[in-house]
Amino acid sequence: MVVVAVLAGLAAAGAGAFAWMQHQELRQTKSALNSANTELQKARSDLKVASDELVSLRKQYAEQQMALNQLQAEMANARTFLEAEKAVSARLREDMAKMKEDFATALRAARSSQARPAGPMLYDPPKPMVIQGRRGVQAVNPQPAQ
Question: Is the pTM of this model over 0.70?
Fold first, then answer.
């Protein structure tokens, strides 16, 4: 009976040691689970922040894309306007060159006509007549009485 009691005591001691080891592993597993849950919550929080930032960046990108499109349209309009202004400027330069030529031709013609003596006047312009009215009012008659 002593042997059975010793064996029973050894079995009980072995079962206690096994239970204690299982309890230690359970505590380590619970600790690791808590640590993993904490990291998971932190990762979820970081993911939420990153998701919100992504939404904000997409909105900014869309706004900047619209601004870029508007600026490109304005630049195209400015190019068209500039080309039109260049065409107008070229036409005005051509017109001014033609006017200079016409003016030079007219000036040469005027100078050549001044070299010839002017012809006699065919008539003298009439002199204005002064007619006195009844009350001392003067009236000027540009036409002579006929």
Answer: no
